[in-house]
Amino acid sequence: QVQLVESGGGLVQAGNSLKLSCAASGGAFTPYLAGWFRQAPGKEREFVAALRWSVGTTYYAGSVKGRFTISRDTDVNTMYLQMNNLNSEDTGVYYCASRHSIGSYSRSDEYHYWGQGTQVTVSS
Across-strand partners of 51? Predict the structure, then answer.
């Protein structure tokens, strides 16, 4: 059973950076896709970024493209989200997730495993 654990969230001022980590455990970790989603208070969970685990192809939501970078280290089964130039609209709980079948990278309902989330708060 895959377990995902996020870390690295916190309180940061607008314009600053934060790096999230997502560590996978529970055996061999070879998902088709792994990604980050976020949920702001009173809003639905939304796609942030994803990558094809085997080849490293990346995908981004338009709102974060150019500011966020998703990456992974296959040696330690860990995925990262480097977030630069943060603004108040980036505030929310950030979740990492993985899916082990071919499909849409942005649909949260198609991901099989989820972490517990880490809070990111950007103060203006």
Answer: 34, 58
Distance CA 79, CA 51 (A): 9
What value does the CA radius of gyration of the chain take, rounded to a whole number of Å?
Answer: 13
The CA-atom distances, in angstroms, between 58 and each of 7, 8, 36, 50, 71 are 21, 21, 11, 6, 8
Q: What DSSP state is assigned to residue 89? A: G
Amino acid at position 105, single letter: Y
Q: Give residue-wise pLDDT tens across range 34-88.
A: 999 999 999 999 999 999 999 999 999 999 999 999 999 999 999 999 999 999 9
pLDDT band at residue 103 using 50, 70 and 90 as cut-offs: confident
Count Cβ atoms below 10 Å from residue 70 Cβ, excluding itself: 24
CA distance to 15, 95, 118, per residue, from 88 (Å): 9, 18, 16
Single out the residue of 113, 105, 122, 107 nearest to residue 6, CA to CA. Answer: 113
